[in-house]
Amino acid sequence: MQKEWPTLACPSGNGVTFWSHEWDKHGTCSEEVLDQHSYFAGSYSLSSIKSAIQSGVGYTPFVECNTDESGNSQLYQVYLCVDNSGSNLVECPVFPHGKCGSQIEFPSF
């Protein structure tokens, strides 16, 4: 956890408060797909990412990846399509070209 999810707060703590906040505020939205351990894991399956997004918004996303210096797939962009008015999500008629590995990491900032 210290390596993959470090707290950058000042003064720096042991991370427990930060991790608790992240799970309570963001992680609980993924409870149907990910338990706490899976949420904080270093990588996620492409299918679980797409499934979580589709479950949340109701439309199929396209997930684009890039690779880090070690060749690991990293989440780069998520595409969803809107209608001509730009107001409503719709199923995308086509997706851009791109490829992700079966396991995807969230890049560190």
TrEMBL record:
Query: What is a single Pfam family found in this protein's UniProt entry?
Result: Ribonuclease_T2
- Cite a single GO MF annotation: RNA binding
Q: Name one GO biological process term.
A: RNA catabolic process
**One cellular component term from this protein's GO annotations in UniProt:** extracellular region
Record-linked InterPro entries: RNase_T2-like, RNase_T2-like_sf, RNase_T2_His_AS_2
Record Gene3D superfamilies: Ribonuclease T2-like
Name the family the entry cites. Answer: Belongs to the RNase T2 family.
Q: What is this protein called?
A: Uncharacterized protein
Q: Which organism is it from?
A: Linum tenue
